[in-house]
């Protein structure tokens, strides 16, 4: 299907059969609240108080739902894009939504008289836009693209549109972008097996005072400040809340964390995970990183004693539902093996099995709910199964503290 994300690990038809088997009611999980809203979700983002969520049901539309307890009620549908919406980011302070799409366009949406109105963005792209993120001050946003560039956009009031400046230096599709808390550095992950950090300083938008204490070259827009190699496509990049660490995940099932990024004590840790590849990562604290991907469960990587290490899958017996007994879970790998075994022996794969995880397919998005100190109290995940799940990070921390984690 042309609407499937490029990283989709399985056929959508199989995913739909799983959906019918699972239904809308998922097993109760004490640390998570999950709801299947649509068939497939390609992106989602929340407003400031997490009462509204904007999501793309893997097509050209953006749907805005109001969350009421465990239920979601659709209130708006945004329809200006022509192809699949690849990323959504909702600015908590200004209440503006930015979206980007495979149609090579981006729009900034503003609520006026109860209706969401789009504002034109001049991206200057000849390939699909793949990711978008607001800067911390919400006066700029960065758009990644298949055109091997990043468009850093800012508002021109006299023309009532958003214009862009281009960062090049990539040799293949830019899959992901993120901003440093200082509102100047922008990091990218690319299909050329590199994660990079650039200056996103824009004259007239950023003040000279914001450059104090930053490395030489930070005042020059698009200046490459750091480059880190991966052994696979880089799917996602994330800065820690204090800006001292940069994390990125590769298609080789590794996650890399660079401590004291751009500082004198810079050091890098590369963890090869006993998992299928991650496709998204996000910090929930300065010493805690959540990753999601093809194993259908969030995983935790944390820093203890000065070293980063893989801790645990978060959707497991004993952690997800407080019960360590019972049958072993069906993993994504064993489920895939069973599918192909059924094809070989029965000539059909129609017999499907519900995975004992909340998500029934690849998780593609993770959105932390951040407090003023940058630490997350909760985070949400969504993926190819059409489920949005809100995870209580504080509860997870408490359960981990009471368990023996190897």
Structure description:
The protein has about 400 residues and is mainly β. It is about 10% helix and about 45% strand. It has three helices and 28 strands. The chain has helices spanning about 10-20, 330-345, 395-400, and strands spanning about 30-35, 45, 50-55, 60-70, 70-80, 85-90, 95-100, 105-110, 115-120, 130-135, 140-145, 150-155, 160-165, 175-180, 185-190, 195-200, 225-230, 235-240, 245-250, 255-260, 265-270, 280-285, 290-295, 300-305, 305-315, 365-370, 375-385, 385-390. The strands form seven sheets. It has a four-stranded antiparallel beta sheet. Strands 2-3-4-5 form a four-stranded antiparallel beta sheet, with no helix packed on it. A four-stranded antiparallel beta sheet has the order 6-7-8-9, with no helix packed on it. The chain is globular and about 60 Å long.
Major sheet size, sense and barrel closure? 4 strands, antiparallel
Mean pLDDT: 87
Percent of residues in helices = under 10%
Radius of gyration, whole Å: 21 Å
| Count of strand segments | 28
How far the N terminus sits from the C terminus, by CA atoms, comes to: 41 Å
Strand order, main sheet: write it out.
Answer: 1-28-27-26
Number of helices: 3
Global structural class? mainly beta
Coarse shape: globular
Runs with pLDDT <50, length 5+? 1-29, 320-330
Amount of beta strand: 35-45%
